[in-house]
Inverse folding.
């Protein structure tokens, strides 16, 4: 039975942010789904009653301890995880680091937050949680950054 025949289907809606400071990108090393240590941007799921922008700021804070300011929208990405068959719809942003709170407890599964240059991150591609990690950075490097005003939430 297909979606059109009444079977419920819904992608995982996620956000991710390329946070830049002094030419380095804020990343997280995390254990995800029982896998060994993988690398991601600060990223996570959209929660009920929050905007995509709020979710991106919240996820950065929860996963890294950094408060950030979003500066642009990089794009929307659709990906199907081959090992699980789950579909992801990721909204990617860029932003800048404002303040770090070392007393913040990081989300479960996050081992540490780390700053890497784009070249260092690219060299670690085999450890990326998904191909979305590098694709978002590559698009950011190519200047594919759009105004945050493209994001609209209606009440």
């Amino acid at each position: 039975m297909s979606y059109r025949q009444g079977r419920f289907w819904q992608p995982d809606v996620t956000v991710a942010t390329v946070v830049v400071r002094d030419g380095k990108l804020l990343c997280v090393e995390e254990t995800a789904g029982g896998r060994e240590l993988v690398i991601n941007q600060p990223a996570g799921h959209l929660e009920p009653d929050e905007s995509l922008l709020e979710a991106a700021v919240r996820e950065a804070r929860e996963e890294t301890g950094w408060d950030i300011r979003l500066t642009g929208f990089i794009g929307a990405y659709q990906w199907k995880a081959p090992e699980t068959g789950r579909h992801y719809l990721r909204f990617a942003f860029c932003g800048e680091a404002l303040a770090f709170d070392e007393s913040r407890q990081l989300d479960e599964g996050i081992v540490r937050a780390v700053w890497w240059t784009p070249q260092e991150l690219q060299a670690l591609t085999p450890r990326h949680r998904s191909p979305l990690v590098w694709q978002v950075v590559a698009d950011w490097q190519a200047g594919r950054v759009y105004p945050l005003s493209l994001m609209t939430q209606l009440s």
About this structure: The CA atoms of residues 63 and 106 lie 5 Å apart. The two ends are 34 Å apart (CA to CA). The mean pLDDT is 93.
